[in-house]
Automatic annotation (TrEMBL):
Keywords: DNA-binding, Transcription, Transcription regulation. InterPro entries: LysR_HTH_N, LysR_subst-bd, WH-like_DNA-bd_sf, WH_DNA-bd_sf. Belongs to the LysR transcriptional regulatory family. Residues 1-58 form the HTH lysR-type domain. It comes from the Bacteria. Gene3D superfamilies: Periplasmic binding protein-like II, Winged helix-like DNA-binding domain superfamily/Winged helix DNA-binding domain. This is LysR family transcriptional regulator.
Amino acid sequence: MELRHLRSFVVVAEELHFGRAAARLFVVQPALSKQIAALERELDVVLFERDRHGVSLTTAGGALLEDARRVLAQADAAVGRAQAAGRGTTGTLRLGFIAPVLYDLLPGLLRPFRARWPDVRLVLEEMHNREAVLGVLGGRVQLAFVRLPVPPEPDLRVRPVRSEGLAVAVPAGSPLADGDGPLHVADLADQDLVLIGRDREPELHDSYLALCAAHGVTPRVAHEVDRTHVAVGLVACGLGVALVPRSARRVAHPDVAYRPLEDPTARLTVGVAWRDGQDPVVANFLALCPEPDGP
């Protein structure tokens, strides 16, 4: 049974006139009559009574009409859903991210994405950096915001989206909190340091130690934590100072002051990672991602 035959049947049933139905369908009347005859042969029933008084539905035709309308509506809906999915206007976006992008980058992308594609379901998952990369490669998430660089993989695509300098989070009452000017790495030499642990974020941990070593500073690591906001919390408790991305300053804390770190080489770059052959939902999100900015 062809859908076009069902459409023709419904229009004839609504018009009860082959001429008017043919005009609505933009076909000639003989072609429409052939379609109806073909449908009647396929179903082995008579759908219309035709006499000098006009056209009327038979009992079989009346029984078919509601089902035909339902089938056509379902077919139209299926086409609409397929087309929407092909354009990326519906579906699901599973997105992984490292915690620091919540400070400003991710909110600035999710708001316009939701406004433009409200029918896309968002599934968000905060992850550590390596976990996020593996999540993309393993299909747990479709894309992820990660700290760069990451090890190259054959199927992994990566694009930088934001580069920023570092700041030092210090207890509000400490001498380092006085003033608005930048601090130098040397200023950290006699400070207890709250550091991101190597077991969860080895690249970030090593980069902070390498930064200190480049300035002749051997850091006095007092505490190791697994996330930046936890480091800031310990700073608020007066347990040390912490190196953080400058965007962390957006999360104000009454017991923490942020001072920019004076070192143009000390930068953190965030990128977006996804696999080759991304679906349209991913492509739409990537179109909103910015190019990396400056200091």
